[in-house]
Automatic annotation (TrEMBL):
InterPro entries: Nuclease_put_TT1808 (IPR012296), Restrct_endonuc-II-like (IPR011335), Uma2 (IPR008538)
One Pfam entry name: Uma2
Sequence ranges assigned to domain Putative restriction endonuclease in this UniProt record: 13-173
Listed name of the protein: Putative restriction endonuclease domain-containing protein
Superkingdom, taxonomy of origin: Bacteria
Natural source organism: Brunnivagina elsteri CCALA 953
Length: 193
């Protein structure tokens, strides 16, 4: 997805929610500013769908909720809201909010050239404020490759790079899968979003 800053006045969170309900596209809300979320490539969308379907099937009837790119994540202790490509929450507090999750244990971002630096940097710094987040998975849409940022028992974030032939392990939801599963049926070429 491509993020573009809107030329609009600063909004309160309440104004943002009311305003966004009337918009045709989604907008992230960071420090009072709104950023339009424009569409991504076909591969970007298909990969995100594969993750949400896989998570939803795996977590069926266990009390966790899978979110797709239409569900906002509130950054803990802030009034900032983002739209990850996929997320999972198992936290009871998220079951009582209608518009967003605050405590996901897993967040997935499918990378594009225009957002990769933000997803790896500023966005990840915001997500790390969440004490419940265990796995942050960054997924290439142009080659079979994923980077998993996992919080270890000491609270430090370690990075695991997965490539062709690897089995991806998401400890946050007790799920392992061959990396190729997510890329089946896709034609992987350099990005032209």
């Amino acid at each position: 997805m491509i993020v573009v800053k809107e030329n609009s006045p600063q909004l309160t969170p309440e104004e943002y929610f009311a305003w966004e309900e009337k918009q045709l596209e989604k907008h992230e809300y960071i420090n009072g500013e709104v950023y339009a979320m424009s569409g991504g490539s076909v591969n970007h969308g298909r990969i995100a769908i594969k993750f949400t379907a896989m998570f939803d099937t795996h977590l069926d009837n266990n009390g966790c909720i899978t979110g797709n790119s239409d569900i906002k994540v509130n950054i803990v202790t802030t009034n900032n809201y983002t739209y990850p490509d996929a997320s999972v929450t198992c936290d009871e507090r998220d079951k009582s909010t209608a518009n967003y999750f605050t405590y996901p244990c897993l967040i997935v971002e499918v990378l594009s050239d225009s957002t990769e630096a933000y997803d790896r940097g500023g966005k990840f710094r915001m997500y790390r404020n969440n004490p419940i987040l265990q796995d942050y998975l960054l997924v290439s849409s142009t080659k079979i490759e994923m980077d998993l940022y996992r919080k270890n028992d000491a609270g430090d974030w370690v990075i695991i790079n997965y490539q062709v032939g690897d089995t991806v392990e998401l400890k946050s939801i007790n799920l392992s899968f061959p990396i190729e599963q997510v890329y089946r049926g896709l034609i992987l070429t350099p990005e032209s979003e």
